[in-house]
Amino acid sequence: MNGKFITFEGCEGAGKSTQIRLLSEYLRRAGVAHIVTREPGGGEISEAIRRVILNGKFTAMTDECEALLYAAARVQHLADTVVPALERGEMVLCDRYIFSSFAYQGFGRGLSEIFLRNINSYAIERFMPDITLFLNISPACAFERKHGADQNDRIEQAGSAFHQKVYEGYQHLLEEYPEQIVSVDCSGTKYETNEKILALLRRRGIIE
Ligand code: TYD
Fold first, then answer.
1. For the chain, what is the domain count?
2. pLDDT tens digits for 177-189?
3. 26 domain-assigned
């Protein structure tokens, strides 16, 4: 597969979608073929799974069920969206991927790393990203920027202690996977963060 697989991680409100949009605009101007996609979701079946996972009414969903649904959405999304684009030689910009499961279901919900690695082994063994960009901003600052949580979103409702655990989880993951995940300080303006991301991707030889 010739295309590069770039994934974005961070807490709610870290500005992933804005940064993905700015990078996509840059790539379009530079004539780089790419797609923008997201997890959970991206294709018809994974978007249907997304609606189940995030449905605010499903408060009885177990943590294991949640983790399995994310893993199921991921496999389908790889098959119908990510892998075909990589095979066409296109760059894939994906909003969240495997490290979201480690951070949210692992550190946030407390599920074991072994369980998460097992249910995600299809993705881990075959399709690890070329680079993962972690947009580093604490949940408190991010929520302030975003003006609070979405009351219809099951994960956003989870409370500040949960989101703090997720954030700390990401800090552990940065230490555990120094080759795969790069932290991007996003305390400045969105344009400053975009410049940092471009510089980083140039250093890695992913863009010119
Ligand atoms: P979304 O509205 O896309 O949130 P954000 O804009 O912050 O990315 O919803 C995705 C939610 O799913 C988000 O709260 C993080 C969560 N998530 C997991 O818990 N595990 C996962 O593996 C993935 C991909 C997402």
1. 1
2. 999 999 999 989 9
3. yes
